[in-house]
Amino acid sequence: MTMELPAIARIAAALVAAILIAFIATPVVKSLAEKVGAVDVPKDNRRMHNHPIPRMGGLAIFLGFLLSTLIFVPLSNAMQGMLLGSVIIVILGIFDDIYALPALPKLVVQIAAALAAVLHGNVIQVISNPNIFSDNPYWVLGAWAVPVSVIWIVAITNAVNLIDGLDGLAVGVATISSLTMLVIAMLVSDSLVALMMAALAGSCIGFLPYNHNPAKIFMGDTGSTFLGFVLATVSIQGLFKFYTIISFAVPFLMLGLPLFDTCFAILRRLSKGQNPMAPDRSHVHHRLIDMGFSQKQAVAILYVISAILGLSAVVLTTSGALKAMVLLCALCLAGLIAARISLSHGGEKTKIEEETTHGTESDDNLRDPSGGSEDGPSGEGAGEPGGN
Question: What whole-number distance in Å separates Cα of residue 203 and Cα of residue 163?
Fold first, then answer.
């Protein structure tokens, strides 16, 4: 199936509109963040910038996505649920960027936002059976549909937040993931998902000039959790509804980098006898910095890995099993490289203390059992003046 020219033009218009709105809105949001005290102050060796930088830039991404979506995308019931959940997530992120909220209330609100989307029709009803030798080609989740859908949305929301640790990293990975889903949606003539992903990719692209190294503004939890929430919710609408193997594999490939980093982080902490939700400085991007790469080089490497995963997802959607297996071998190689980076060089290094460049916007708040951000206890540092 191929999309008609008017549909492609509408998708392009949604992309361009989101780019312009986010690009224009970001300086305004930056000024607002400085006024309300939404400023990231470096206080520990997980931070790679050496002076206060405004965060809450995700509000500009949200505005670009929201306005472009309202203009170009028909508001179905599922779409309304996704937007309602997005508003909840963004409001939570704004308060968290200002006041550094405790972990448990944030998790509760994220579950509520996920339920708002799920109860409006964003539900994983059926997934393909990953056992290719089984006579049953797919699983009907039945009573498990709602909890599985909520877990998926909350997990991806926080997985994207987890990789938000270098200038331009999370927003760039989200751009690659959304463009991947955009291409897949166009290939299967799903114009609704294509429009939403065009709006999301455009808002990320419009924000990126202000966020690449050295960053002028961070997107904060407002942006990272919003991007994860939308990617997770739209993947339910556009990918899990296929009763083939791609419905199981494609979402995991498309969001492979944040998912891999999250899994490695949990395994690493458990192997050391730590709380799996405790923050640390051992994520993939930290490992790359400790191995001697500059921030721009580390981000470029992770972009390439994310692009390989995205390309594999596209090929799985469009090609036969043989080509898919060839690319999956390449994918496994990329995964081994990522695993080696993440699980090797276990000793904590202090190289970051010698770095003088900008660079982290990761709060990783949800994984802090004490209820505070990695800046310190909840609320510490909030309200301090920001600047570049």
Answer: 19
Specify the 3-state DSSP secondary structure of 196: helix
Q: Which two tokens stand for residue 238?
A: 């556009």
Residues 244, 137: Cα–Cα separation, whole Å: 7
- For residues 193 and 40, the answer to whether their CB atoms sit within 8 Å is no
Instruction: Render each residue's pLDDT in the chain as its tens digit; 388 residues.
Output: 567 888 899 999 999 999 999 999 999 999 999 999 888 877 655 555 557 889 899 999 999 999 999 999 988 899 999 999 999 999 999 999 998 888 889 999 999 999 999 999 899 887 766 665 667 767 778 888 899 999 999 999 988 888 877 888 889 999 999 998 898 888 888 889 999 999 999 999 999 999 988 889 999 999 999 999 999 999 888 766 654 444 556 677 777 777 777 777 777 677 777 666 666 566 676 677 767 777 788 888 888 888 888 887 777 777 655 565 666 676 667 666 665 665 554 444 434 344 444 444 444 444 433 333 333 333 333 333 333 3
pTM: 0.79
Separation CA 98–CA 84 (nearest Å): 22
The neighbour count for residue 323, using CB atoms within 10 Å, is 12
For the chain, the distance separating the N- and C-terminal CA atoms, rounded to the nearest angstrom, is 50
Prior bond to 130 cis, omega within 30? no
